[in-house]
Amino acid sequence: MFTENTKLMSAIRDRFAHVDSCPFQGPRVFFENAGGALTLNTVVETSTKFAAIPDNQGRDNPASHALVDIIKQARADMALFFNAPDGQFFVGESGTELSFRLIRTAVMGSAPGAVIGSTVEHPASRSAAQHWADVAGKPYISVPHDNATGQVTPDAYAALMTPEVRVATILHTSPVTGIANDVAGISAAIRTIAPDAYIFVDGIQHASHGHIDIASYDIDGYVISPYKLFSRHGYGIAWASERLTALPIETLANGPAGNWEMGTRDTGAYATFSDVVRYFDWLGSQVSDATAPRARIEAAAAAIHDHEQQLTNALLFGTGNLAGLADLAGVKILGGTDNPDREGLVSFTLDALPAADIVTQLNAQGIRTHVRKADHYSGNILTPLGLDAAVRVSLCHYNSMDEVRALLTAMKDIAA
């Protein structure tokens, strides 16, 4: 969608820092968004502003009152963005840390039974679920994903579900293959057999590529890392359902009931997420006639999806007289070449050249990508495919077709 509207594409790119140049390398194309998306200029400004404020929340002075109001507004913005009319939002150290906290609470606070998750998951959820299941003496049920598609299905969960399942974890989108899973379908399959299970979703990779609709998932926990959603490092965001919060949570004795946060939080973290929500609202106003904030956010998400699909199709199948990655001899595309659930990411290997060498050669030409190795982060996906590494090209909606052409031009020479 943005490809045909050069004025809008320029307006989008102008809102991000370092969109076409690196402060260390100089001019470059940024296709490393799964490792951390570009940062909104407003987020940089907001971070600077709040880093200088000495006051804390909870005091009786004008600055403290203002900070409390900013956090209150940010939580309302989060509820709007995630479409979560109930439950609680809070920030923590990182998406991984918050995943461990929510999963620990669910496993340790639920009745005796089992924990279920899938082999496609990032260790942020899988390691947490396996660790706390072991501590609690609860069996862990491992649902296998489909190596060809890089997905796990509702049927795969249903085949291994039992009424004794107390906690379930789901990965929304894989950071290795870019393939999304059917969260609502998997949740329904779980609840059909274990209706009272606590269901946690890792939305870290998905957040920047498609809309989030917690109200439609029937889940109890959802976590993102805002640095992958155009904000900054240093915090994560979690949503917890009221029933999850009702379990015994770690909190200060005699403090407010149901308070997940421990210690003084950075007001600037909350404020920068409001910047993200305002950006989505602006983008929605550019691509639709919607006036309601949630409708604008949904319109922005739909436009982002369409634009990224155009870019990934060009990456895979070519554009103009440039061959796509799938057309190059010796190339293997992870997750399948034609997978409709792909979200802004293509991982591939080339028979004639190690993945690390491809990344190095692309970087020398000013094209930033990343090598995923069969380590504790990606081995669950790569090892069953007989791969020790893959090249990951991850994009976002501010990437352009010209940048895709630059990568395909470079790959033509590298593959030759």
Automatic annotation (TrEMBL):
The entry's keywords? Pyridoxal phosphate, Transferase
| Residue ranges of every copy of the Aminotransferase class V domain listed in the record | 29-407
Q: Which organism is it from?
A: Sulfitobacter pontiacus
UniProt superkingdom: Bacteria
The record's listing under PANTHER family reads: CYSTEINE DESULFURASE
State which Enzyme Commission number(s) the record gives: 2.8.1.7
GO molecular function terms attached to this record? cysteine desulfurase activity
Listed Gene3D superfamilies: Aspartate Aminotransferase, domain 1 (3.90.1150.10), Type I PLP-dependent aspartate aminotransferase-like (Major domain) (3.40.640.10)
Transmembrane domains' residue ranges: none
The entry's protein name is Cysteine desulfurase
Q: What class of enzyme is it?
A: transferase
